[in-house]
């Protein structure tokens, strides 16, 4: 560790947060996790970096100095932590992008960032090809369709259970088709990515999303198809689910790791 390390506050010590911190430590990245935000500081947390402060809410950021706050906690956690970080001029990276279907929240975050000069960063998360989609959307685009296929167990505890018996599925079932806004609002633990593809492309209401539970799948699959004046694109990823949460893909943690390391080093790739 050195005085020039990037100082990061990590909010959420779940599957993604703990994985990001573990990879940063294993790779000896020039990053210092100065605090970890959780809901309950009394609960036992394994693998915390040795010099980290465990804090229960944004009020406890008082006196902490950081460059970047990384949110990997949940939709409800975004507003309070994000506003506190941006108000301090810290950059903000968001994993729980489903929260951004709330136009008031997005406007508040942008206003706060503008006031202090901080940046709001939305990493591709479990997706790829977002650079191409975002570039393509500078010209007219006719359509973007995002298909998400996950093992049946990844939809447990979600609104998918209202429309099908996940345990009894013998073949893939597409249980939802609608806009990215509807997908992210109804499935905030599984369709944060719908907001990412929508924000990069043609927006929350024009981006079409299909959600499928596949009893034979072992990976989380994302397929994005887009057509516009730029041409066409199709990208498909088969993401390994994280051990700690089958709803979330390993690539999401790797995407946050990339963002953090890019800001910590001189080279951005
Ligand atoms: N952008 C993307 O591509 C993707 C985004 N995600 C999203 O990333 C987020 C993290 O995912 P994942 O790690 O898998 O989820 P987990 O459920 O494994 O972990 C979430 C953690 O956040 C903590 N938490 C919840 N609310 C708060 C709060 N208000 N303040 C501080 N900590 C809080 C929980 O703490 P506690 O111990 O108290 O329960 C838990 O440890 C989720 O919103 C998920 O939907 C997931 C996959 C892809
Ligand atoms: O990790 C993934 O594959 C996608 C995901 O859970 C989300 O967007 O919420």
TrEMBL record:
Question: Highest taxon of the source?
Answer: Bacteria
* Gene3D superfamilies in the record: Dihydrodipicolinate Reductase, domain 2 (3.30.360.10), NAD(P)-binding Rossmann-like Domain (3.40.50.720)
Aspartate dehydrogenase domain mapped to chain residues: 170-256
The family database entries (InterPro entries) matched by this protein are listed as: Asp/hSer_DH_NAD-bd, Asp_DH, Asp_DH_prok, L-Asp_DH, NAD(P)-bd_dom_sf
The active site is formed by: 222
Membrane-spanning ranges = none
Enzyme class comes to: oxidoreductase
Q: Which reaction does it catalyse?
A: L-aspartate + NAD(+) + H2O = oxaloacetate + NH4(+) + NADH + H(+); L-aspartate + NADP(+) + H2O = oxaloacetate + NH4(+) + NADPH + H(+)
| Any GO MF annotation of the entry | oxidoreductase activity, acting on the CH-NH2 group of donors, NAD or NADP as acceptor
For this protein, the Enzyme Commission number is 1.4.1.21
Q: In which pathway does it act?
A: Cofactor biosynthesis; NAD(+) biosynthesis; iminoaspartate from L-aspartate (dehydrogenase route): step 1/1
Q: Which UniProt keywords apply?
A: NAD, NADP, Oxidoreductase, Pyridine nucleotide biosynthesis
What positions does the domain Aspartate/homoserine dehydrogenase NAD-binding occupy?
12-123
Identify the residues that bind NAD(+).
Answer: 126, 192
Q: Which SUPFAM superfamilies match?
A: Glyceraldehyde-3-phosphate dehydrogenase-like, C-terminal domain (SSF55347), NAD(P)-binding Rossmann-fold domains (SSF51735)
Biological processes, Gene Ontology terms = NAD+ biosynthetic process
Spell out the family assignment given in the record's similarity comment: Belongs to the L-aspartate dehydrogenase family.
This molecule's function is given as: Specifically catalyzes the NAD or NADP-dependent dehydrogenation of L-aspartate to iminoaspartate.
Query: Further notes on this entry?
Result: The iminoaspartate product is unstable in aqueous solution and can decompose to oxaloacetate and ammonia.
Fetch the PANTHER family from UniProt.
ASPARTATE DEHYDROGENASE DOMAIN-CONTAINING PROTEIN (PTHR31873:SF6), L-ASPARTATE DEHYDROGENASE-RELATED (PTHR31873)
Q: What is the protein name stated in its UniProt record?
A: L-aspartate dehydrogenase
The source organism is Szabonella alba
């Amino acid at each position: 560790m050195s005085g020039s390390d990037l100082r990061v506050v990590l909010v959420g010590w779940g599957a993604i947060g703990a994985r990001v911190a573990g990879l940063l430590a294993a790779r000896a990245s020039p990053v210092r996790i100065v605090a970890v935000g959780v809901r309950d500081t009394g609960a036992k947390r394994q693998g915390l970096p040795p010099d980290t402060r465990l804090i229960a809410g944004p009020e406890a950021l008082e006196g902490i100095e950081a460059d970047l706050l990384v949110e990997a906690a949940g939709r409800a956690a975004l507003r309070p932590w994000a506003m506190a970080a941006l108000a301090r001029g810290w950059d903000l990276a968001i994993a729980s992008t489903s929260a951004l279907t709330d136009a008031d929240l997005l406007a508040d975050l942008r206003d706060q960032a503008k006031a202090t000069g901080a940046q709001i960063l939305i990493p591709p998360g479990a997706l790829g090809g977002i650079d191409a989609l975002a570039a393509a959307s500078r010209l007219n685009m006719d359509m973007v369709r995002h298909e998400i296929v996950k093992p049946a167990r990844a939809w447990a505890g979600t609104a998918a259970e209202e429309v099908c018996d996940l345990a009894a599925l013998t073949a893939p079932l597409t249980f939802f088709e609608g806009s990215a806004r509807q997908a992210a609002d109804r499935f905030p633990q599984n369709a944060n990515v719908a907001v990412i593809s929508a924000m990069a492309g043609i927006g929350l209401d024009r981006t079409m999303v299909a959600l499928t539970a596949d009893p034979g799948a072992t990976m989380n699959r994302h397929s994005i198809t887009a057509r516009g004046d730029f041409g066409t694109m199709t990208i498909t990823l088969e993401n390994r689910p994280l051990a700690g949460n089958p709803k979330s893909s390993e690539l999401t943690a790797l995407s946050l790791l990339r963002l953090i390391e890019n800001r910590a080093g001189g080279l951005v790739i």
